[in-house]
Design brief:
The protein is of the alpha+beta class. The chain is built from 4 helices and 3 strands.
């Protein structure tokens, strides 16, 4: 799945995947990305159907798509778990 091929998108998805909303401003800060760069990455994830967005005044909030097919969610869970494991091993 191309949507999760980019490290920044995977990092954003890992934050969003915890079943709560995240403001784009929070994702920008935590990932060290500009607003335009973060918005482009989040658009790819949204277009792939992995996340949903909601406008909240001047910001947009993102959350996991609750209607994602279980087999896709399982793949993403596995990818994110493997990446987290690899990061812990290299630390």
């Amino acid at each position: 799945m191309d949507a999760i091929s980019d490290p920044t998108r995977r990092a954003a998805l890992a934050l969003i995947w915890n079943d709560r909303e995240h403001c784009v401003c929070e994702l920008m800060t935590r990932l060290g990305a500009t607003q335009s760069r973060m918005s482009r990455h989040l658009k790819v994830l949204r277009d792939a159907g992995l996340i949903l967005d909601r406008r909240d005044a001047q910001w947009v909030r993102y959350r996991k798509n609750p209607d994602i097919r279980p087999e896709f969610a399982a793949v993403i869970d596995a990818v994110l778990a493997a990446e987290a494991y690899a990061e812990r091993q290299s630390a």
